[in-house]
């Protein structure tokens, strides 16, 4: 018998403030200030496809790890939650390097809008990079999707947030940009509080190493000190 195949067509594209993979939260909901817009593509941009969706507070997004497309997969991976030191089976993790490159994320629905032929959903709490192809949307149903008795042994709790402070220069730059990006300071704070550094960098903290995170139109420059992350400046890209 021939091997089964499945052709998938994206139903929309996600526009988020995360312009690169680095610093995207490792799970949805960790950065509640992360707002995004999911624009539906033809022929799915018919408002009838969204009839009744406002009755749900949250949605499941099935998406493609498009930045990893073509990079292949391996039977085992090194989860960041285990410090990158221990291998786990790919199906026992949420690694983006998967046989079919598909992911699942739950987001908060803030509403939806139509402007001419354009139809889009306003979302928050996203953990997806800008331009992510969305394969499908399904409503989140609490009585079926929330299982308090579920066990997750190596990731039982959310990661511990680290302190984040801002230099005077960064504070001024954020204030100037806040008219275009309301809540920008809180957003940057919550992104960096997740400590997006690779696991081996976390084990070898150095104040001399500077990082850059591409959020919206900015390269957010920051480094680690003994008391947490310090945002030094925002550079317009």
From TrEMBL:
Keyword S-adenosyl-L-methionine part of the UniProt annotation? yes
Pfam families, sorted: TrmO_C, TrmO_N
Its domain of life reads Bacteria
InterPro entries noted in UniProt: TrmO-like_N, TrmO_C, UPF0066_cons_site, YaeB-like, YaeB-like_sf, YaeB_N_sf
Q: Which PROSITE patterns match?
A: TSAA_1, TSAA_2
Family matches, as CDD domains: UPF0066
Q: Which residues form the TsaA-like domain?
A: 8-149
Recite the UniProt keywords alphabetically: S-adenosyl-L-methionine
Q: Which residues form the signal peptide?
A: none
Assigned protein family: Belongs to the tRNA methyltransferase O family.
| Protein name, entry field | tRNA (N6-threonylcarbamoyladenosine(37)-N6)-methyltransferase TrmO
Q: Which lineage ranks, top first, belong to the organism behind this chain?
A: Bacteria, Pseudomonadati, Pseudomonadota, Gammaproteobacteria, Aeromonadales
Tell me the gene name.
Answer: tsaA
């Amino acid at each position: 018998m021939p091997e089964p195949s499945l052709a998938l067509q994206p139903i929309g594209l996600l526009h988020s403030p995360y312009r690169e993979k680095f610093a995207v939260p490792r799970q949805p909901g960790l950065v509640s200030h992360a707002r995004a817009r999911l624009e539906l593509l033809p022929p799915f941009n018919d408002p009838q496809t969204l009839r009744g969706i406002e009755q749900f507070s949250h949605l499941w997004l099935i998406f493609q790890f498009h930045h990893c497309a073509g990079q292949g997969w391996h039977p085992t991976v090194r989860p960041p939650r285990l410090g990158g030191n221990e291998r786990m089976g790919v199906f026992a993790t949420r690694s983006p390097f998967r046989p079919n490159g598909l992911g699942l994320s739950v987001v908060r629905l803030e509403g939806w809008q139509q402007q001419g032929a354009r139809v889009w959903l306003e979302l928050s709490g996203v953990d997806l990079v800008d331009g992510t192809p969305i394969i499908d949307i399904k409503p989140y149903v609490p009585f079926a999707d929330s299982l308090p008795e579920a066990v997750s042994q190596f990731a039982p709790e959310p990661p511990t947030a680290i302190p984040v402070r801002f230099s005077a220069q960064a504070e001024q730059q954020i204030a100037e940009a806040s008219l275009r990006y309301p809540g920008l300071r809180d957003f940057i704070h919550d992104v960096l509080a997740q400590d997006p550094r690779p696991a081996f960098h976390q084990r070898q903290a150095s104040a001399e190493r500077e990082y850059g995170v591409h959020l919206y139109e900015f390269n957010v420059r920051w480094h680690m000190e003994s008391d947490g992350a310090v945002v030094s400046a925002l550079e317009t890209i």
